[in-house]
UniProtKB/TrEMBL annotation:
Organism superkingdom: Eukaryota
High-level lineage: Eukaryota, Metazoa, Chordata, Craniata, Vertebrata
InterPro entries per UniProt: ConA-like_dom_sf, Pentaxin_CS, Pentraxin_domain, PTX_dom
Location in or out of the cell: Secreted
Name of the protein: Pentraxin family member
Gene: Ptx2
The record's free-text note on cofactor binding: Binds 2 calcium ions per subunit.
Amino acid sequence: DLYRKVFVFRKDPSDAYVVLRARLEQPLHNFTVCLRSYTDLSRPHSLFSYATKAQDNEILLFKPKPEEYRFYVGGKFVTFRAPEGRGDWEHVCASWESATGIAELWLNGKPRPRKGLQRGYTVGATAAILLGQEQDSFGGGFDFYNSFSGELCDVYLWDVALSPDKMRSAFLSLRLPPALLAWSSLSYEVKGDVVVKTRLRE
């Protein structure tokens, strides 16, 4: 249980990452991924990377610059403008549903304008899920200048597109539905220079 804990990625650039193990029984037709990050990076960096053998950017949450999020599904992406951060923690949730192709991005509990992405696509279930690096091959192929440096916590993955109420609950750290990946019961393995520390402030 990582309650009130964070992963600190100490180096910049870095070869470190965290492997997450999710209980995925079948391919995903809908999903939501949420996490909190705290960084002063201005270069591109990966937040959440989910690769299959067929597609390295099966699900990817990527920040090319401080005021922009890129959300990939099945190798295609949409860009969401993000108001320039105030150098504080940022909570981001990205959701997608296959039937409509609707992609949503919520930043600090508020939705950005919705976009269309990969309607009718199915996300593969046999996945390598990493924090801190962007995979260019299954479980590897890193470009260290896309690595994350800073603090990450509150990582979740659901096999549904969360409702607006639940998106706000995730931001406020309230009770959430059972997840494929949950911060409160995370199965993970640290690779390299990543330290688990108590969160500095709530």
